[in-house]
Amino acid sequence: MKHNIVIPDLPSLDSAAKEFLEYTEGHSLIAFYAPMGAGKTTFTTALCRALGVEADAISSPTFSIVNEYRTNDGESIFHFDFYRISKTAEALDIGFYDYVDSGCLCLMEWPENIEEILPEETLKVFITVGPDGSRTVSWED
């Protein structure tokens, strides 16, 4: 089934994140495909906030590749940014499979850079930018 959530503006972001989490409950591996500036990190930040992560603890892992956050319940969330990965071996070197096999929520930006090692059960989510600046988050399950 195909799903779409339209985010018309920034004030709608938090409710869209909560809606997304309801629809995708049970998925622990989520990969976000979108062009630069489409809002991958912004949406990931909203998802983490909705899960109880302190807002000031959330940042883009562009240089570190992966950040770990903790929810209010003490659950780990792993946030990956594979933008700077040029070889699959680099993802393997950081222990990629250890993270995805942990059962914890893994939110991945720029997954196209590691496509060949993404587990089959990874939920592929696409963010597109409308002419009016809105964002559409879409996926199939």
Q: What are the secondary-structure elements, in order, as H or E?
A: EHEHEEHHEEE
**What's the oligomerization state?**
single chain
Alpha-beta classification: alpha/beta
Number of helices: 4
The number of strands is: 7
Round the Cα radius of gyration to an integer and report it: 14 Å
Instruction: Note the gap between the termini.
Output: 5 Å
Q: Largest sheet at a glance?
A: 7 strands, mixed
Side by side, the strands of the main sheet go: 1-7-6-2-5-4-3
Low-pLDDT stretches: none
> What is the helix fraction of residues, given as a range?
10-25%
**Strand residue percentage:** 25-35%
Q: Overall pLDDT, averaged? A: 93
Task: Please describe the topology of this protein.
Elements: E1 2-7, H1 13-23, E2 29-33, H2 40-50, E3 66-70, E4 76-81, H3 88-93, H4 96-100, E5 105-109, E6 123-129, E7 135-140
Helix pairs in contact: 1-2
